[in-house]
Design brief:
Elements lengths: L33 H30 L1 H16 L7 E2 L2 H5 L5 H12 L7 E9 L8 H18 L19 H10 L14 E2 L4 E4 L2 E4 L4 E11 L4 E15 L4 H18 L9 E7 H39 L5 H28 L4 E2 L5 H22 L6 H30 L5 H32 L43 H11 L1 H24 L15 H15 L1 E7 L8 H15 L13 H18 L15 H7 L6 E5 L5 E12 L5 H16 L6 E4 L3 H32 L3 H24 L6 H16 L2 H9 L4 H27 L8 H42 L9 H21 L18
Parallel strand pairs: 1-9
Antiparallel strand pairs: 2-7, 2-8, 3-4, 4-5, 6-7, 10-12, 10-13, 11-12
């Protein structure tokens, strides 16, 4: 019968103490760099403290497994209870509009100008002829007006709470088109002579009864003639499209739901060929439609990710079954371990959702990815922990076995978990609310999953392990190296520390691979692979462009995508830039009025502007009216015989004739005259299909307005919040990656005493991120907030493929070939398992027709492949090269050595290596294999 070994004491040495049964502790020789000394000593001290804490915690967990399980489940339940107040944000504009930005201030001015309590809902209907002909034919115009009348009937209904119409104050947005359409459909128009018709149809300005009407915002794809047709006084040959714009208040739920039902009804009818209109086809776009399609995409993603979750479950079952098969663990116990391994990430996601809700944050549709992402990433810690548990299977005392496991895998799991938490946490500072909250929730979930790995999974593994034979004595870890008192429940005196064990040799193929990595051929191959990766990365980064569209948030197979394409064609020809003047000029003051005209002239001089001909500025029409009125009164003998000077004296009559338009805000002066308080005018631009162009043009507009602060003018665009991010996403991405890499390097430096090792990890992370951005560019990604967050997440994941190997390499003994071989032998299986599990969970996302989700899936796949290539090939080659270079520098660091001092320097080098190994030995627990390594079996 196999004899159960006793549980010897695990001793964690303070600095300067001696190892019982081992080599005497020595004082490290002072290197030349004081900064290196500080880093080395602090790393060694922190490593001792961390190993001691893990050892104590492992003992405590193994002593009270049921209590840890119950407390973990209780805390998760407490955090999750806040989900009863769950609020999901469906508004796509709110999801992508950052708070406290310049665009939000402009939105606030816009709402204040029109007396709105919240941002309005906007929609448009785009009409085109089914036969591809002109839309100005009678049958087509009548069908357009019939649909328009139905929409207006719903939007002009008054709200029962506020008493206001849903479209107030912009119910007449389509007024110019209505005038022209009704004039074209007049019963007696065909019998009128061209010179007697009240309508002179031209483009973009038509004239009706002497009043100019701007048609550029409603009639598109227009072909004109150089002369007017005699039968209808028109220069328009044909017009391919008609677009009607609608504005709806969102002050109350009643108004919002009325518009939602209307737009969704029209959207569904538009998909049925010829069902609603016979001669005209129409496309509908609205905020509610975009929100509905975004929800549909989230549901599709959740369904497909459920398939990925099943694949993940099968893979985890297979891996854990193979890991525990050698221990003769019952099948039911294996299934229980599988269940807990999957349950930990899901419970952490649930707790993270509850915590975010408790902080008052809404949940966004893209956050449906979080549970599956955490499941794919969280099982990585379970793989590493179970792998170490099996490597220590000859330690039959569960308490001591768990202590060895936690000392061994604690640093690796902590490094990857903390770096992932920080990477996601930095993503929280991205300006997009949807991506920001997604990163915050995922960061919290990663950290909670890290805790549950030790407080839930480890206790379950301990409980399911075979108990030691009756009468077996468990010895407590004597971390203070003191004799046990008589009151202690363990025997006294303590047993001596176990002698170091020789770790088992890796398989022959691993050793051959390590030899290849250490050879000149391996280095040449690494340089060749790196050259290919950086070529892809550089070319991809150079072709990367800043762009973003709301269509990236909903499925590409949605009819809304074609509507967005049609809208892009509209923006190529017509795009309004609204300017709100909050301190109007005094037109009677010549210099002030001239400055205002200069500001408008600069706006009209922009290359993308159509110029003064299409600028919608009421003040120019008022000046013409006022000039004619002044001339009339002078001709009647009532005016003064002096040069004309504009004034607001005739403003009351002018705005009354226009029907008191909402774009002019006035107030009555004490003398009864009207004064202008604020007004809006519009610069019509073109070539605004690309969102980057829109962002650049609008930034130019802001710069011009800022040159004239006396008018307190601001521009407005409903998509300005997103457009602003495009201008800063590149610098934000570079800054975020830099901060993330520095943070990860700091964390790694706490566990890895070697400066070169930390630098190697930082360089590998930078290399992975740079290559990843290039690969994503070649996969069709744009430089937008989605890509920015994806790269930040990948930065966190990249540590998983570098820190494990680097940490194990610097805790091993022997030559660099032996250290690399042992490190790869221990870490290659869990790294591959982690990559495969994450890829399986994310694989179905590749079939979701939503850009944001597909881009996320591509990022995961790319970082897995690039990360494994770095972690299993490039990083080991780099570490081997550093080891050789280090030895060469020690031998030849001072230039040419004197011949008589050569032997002394070589002897000093040998002593330095011995000192270095002894110093490392003091940083870990005795019995490492030392007892803190994966290769330790029973420690005695």
């Amino acid at each position: 019968m196999h004899k159960v070994p006793s549980c010897p004491l695990l001793v964690v040495l303070p600095p300067g103490a001696s190892v019982p049964g081992g080599a005497p502790s020595v004082t490290l020789r002072r290197p030349s760099s004081s900064l290196f000394v500080l880093h080395r000593r602090s790393s060694l001290i922190f490593s001792r403290m961390f190993d001691s804490t893990n050892a104590r915690w492992g003992l405590f967990i193994a002593a009270h497994p049921v209590a840890h399980i119950l407390i973990s489940l209780f805390l998760v339940s407490v955090l999750s209870v806040h989900l009863i107040n769950l609020r999901i944000e469906y508004d796509i504009r709110a999801s992508f509009s950052p708070k406290n930005s310049k665009a939000m201030r402009e939105e606030s001015v816009y709402e204040q100008f029109f007396n709105l309590s919240t941002s309005p809902l906007r929609s448009f209907v785009l009409f085109s002829a089914r036969d591809g002909g002109s839309m100005l034919r009678e049958t087509h115009l009548r069908e357009v007006l019939s649909l328009d009348a139905e929409v207006n009937e719903q939007m002009e209904r008054r709200d029962s709470l506020t008493g206001m119409r849903g479209c107030d104050p912009l119910c007449s947005l389509n007024g110019p088109f209505h005038v022209v359409a009704n004039a074209l459909l007049a019963p007696n128009r065909s019998h009128q002579a061209a010179n007697s018709t009240p309508l002179a149809l031209n483009y973009p300005i038509a004239t009706y009864l002497g009043t100019e009407l701007f048609l550029g915002g409603h009639v598109l794809g227009v072909q004109t003639s150089n002369h007017s047709f005699t039968n209808n006084n028109s220069r328009i040959v044909s017009a391919k499209k008609i677009i009607l714009w609608y504005f709806n208040r969102a002050d109350t739920v009643e108004t919002k739901m009325r518009l939602r039902k209307l737009t969704l009804k029209l959207f569904n009818e538009a998909q049925v060929e010829g069902d609603r209109l016979r001669s005209v086809k129409f496309e509908v776009f609205g905020d509610d439609i975009a929100n509905s399609e975004m929800i549909r995409g989230a549901i599709q993603a959740t369904i497909l990710m459920s398939i990925g979750f099943v694949l993940l479950l099968l893979f985890v079952t297979l891996v854990i079954f193979r890991l525990l098969a050698t221990s003769a663990v019952p099948l039911l116990s294996v299934l229980c371990v599988v269940l807990i391994s999957i349950l930990c990430p899901l419970l952490s996601s649930l707790a993270a959702f509850g915590l975010c809700t408790w902080m008052g944050n809404p949940l966004y549709t893209i956050m449906c990815v979080t549970p599956f992402l955490i499941a794919g990433v969280g099982v990585d810690d379970a793989f590493i922990m179970l792998q170490s548990w099996q490597h220590h299977q000859t330690i039959e005392c569960p308490r001591r076995r768990l202590s060895f496991v936690m000392v061994h895998v604690g640093p690796s799991i902590t490094i990857t978990s903390l770096t992932n938490t920080i990477a996601f946490g930095i993503g929280f500072f991205t300006p997009t609310p949807q991506m920001s909250l997604f990163c915050l929730c995922t960061s919290i979930a990663v950290f909670i999953d890290y805790l549950l790995t030790f407080t839930l999974l480890c206790p379950v593994v301990v409980l399911l392990s075979s108990p030691p034979p009756a009468g077996h004595v468990h010895l407590q870890l004597n971390l203070h190296r003191r004799p046990l008192a008589s009151s202690d429940k363990f025997p006294s005196p303590p047993l001596p520390a176990p002698p170091a064990l020789v770790p088992p040799s890796p398989p022959s193929w691993v050793h051959r691979y390590a030899l290849f990595l250490h050879s000149a051929n391996g280095r040449m191959m690494a340089l060749f692979v790196a050259a290919i990766l950086y070529t892809i990365g550089i070319s991809g980064v150079l072709r990367l462009k800043s762009s973003f569209e709301p269509s990236k948030a909903f499925p590409s197979d949605s009819p809304l995508s074609s509507s967005m394409n049609s809208l892009s064609e509209v923006f190529e020809e017509f795009f309004p830039v609204h300017v709100f003047v909050n301190h109007p000029p005094n037109i009677s003051n010549t210099s002030e009025y001239a400055e205002f005209n200069a500001m408008v002239a600069q706006l009209e001089a922009l290359p993308e502007s159509w110029g003064a001909r299409r600028t919608l500025l009421w003040l120019r029409h008022f000046e013409q009216f006022d000039r004619r009125a002044d001339h009339f009164w002078r001709s009647m003998g009532f005016g003064r015989h002096q040069k004309y000077r504009p004034s607001y004296a005739n403003l009351a009559f002018f705005v009354d004739q226009l029907g008191n338009p909402p774009i002019i805000k006035t107030e009555t002066a004490p003398d009864g005259s009207l004064n202008v308080v604020a007004f809006q005018f519009t610069i019509v631009t073109r070539h605004m299909t690309e969102w980057w162009n829109r962002a650049v043009v609008e930034e130019k507009v802001r710069a011009i307005l800022e040159r004239f602060p006396q008018f307190n003018a601001t521009m407005h665009d409903g998509d300005a919040a997103i457009l602003n991010m495009l201008l800063t996403v590149k610098s934000d991405l570079i800054g975020s990656i830099a901060v993330t890499i520095v943070s990860m390097a700091v964390i790694c430096s706490l566990f890895i005493y070697s400066r070169l090792g930390v630098c190697a990890i930082a360089l590998c992370i930078s290399s992975i991120c740079f290559t990843l951005v290039g690969v994503l560019s070649w996969c069709g990604a744009d430089l937008d907030p989605v890509t920015m967050v994806d790269v930040l997440l990948a930065t966190g994941f990249s540590v998983d493929y570098t820190a494990h190997v680097a940490h194990q390499y610097h805790t091993k003994k022997g030559t660099s070939i032996d250290r690399i071989a042992h490190s790869l032998h221990e870490m290659c299986p869990p790294m591959l398992q982690a990559g495969i599990s994450t890829a399986l969970c994310m694989l179905p996302l590749a079939f979701v027709p939503t850009y944001a989700i597909v881009a996320f899936a591509k990022t995961i796949f790319a970082v897995i492949l690039i990360g494994l290539l770095h972690g299993l090939f490039l990083l080991p080659v780099f570490l081997c090269a550093l080891h050789k270079d280090k030895r060469k520098r020690k031998t030849h660091g001072g230039g040419e050595l004197n011949a008589e001092k050569g032997e002394e320097e070589e002897e000093q080098l040998r002593k330095d290596d011995m000192l270095e190994e002894d110093g490392e030995k003091g940083a870990r627990s005795v019995g490492e294999g030392g007892g803190g390594t994966t290769d330790a079996k029973n420690g005695g």
